[in-house]
Amino acid sequence: MEITALDVVDAIRSTMDELSHIGPDDPFADLDIDSLSLVEAAVILSNKFGVRVDEFELAEAGTARAVSSVVTEKLALQLAV
Q: Residues of the chain with pLDDT > 90: what percent?
């Protein structure tokens, strides 16, 4: 199952009003996202897609498009086990 950048954006937008304007290629660093928002986004994505994602992975990925690749890779590994 491939997770797209829009899947990630939609999941974040639907639950976090302060990030309702986020786009797939918007750098998280430029959006003034604090660490608590990254934790909240990580929980949302983990619950939505069924794989554990933490705030450090989100910060390292930097954009929703990059996060979609991380989530897709984790799903593939989970299915392979």
A: 63
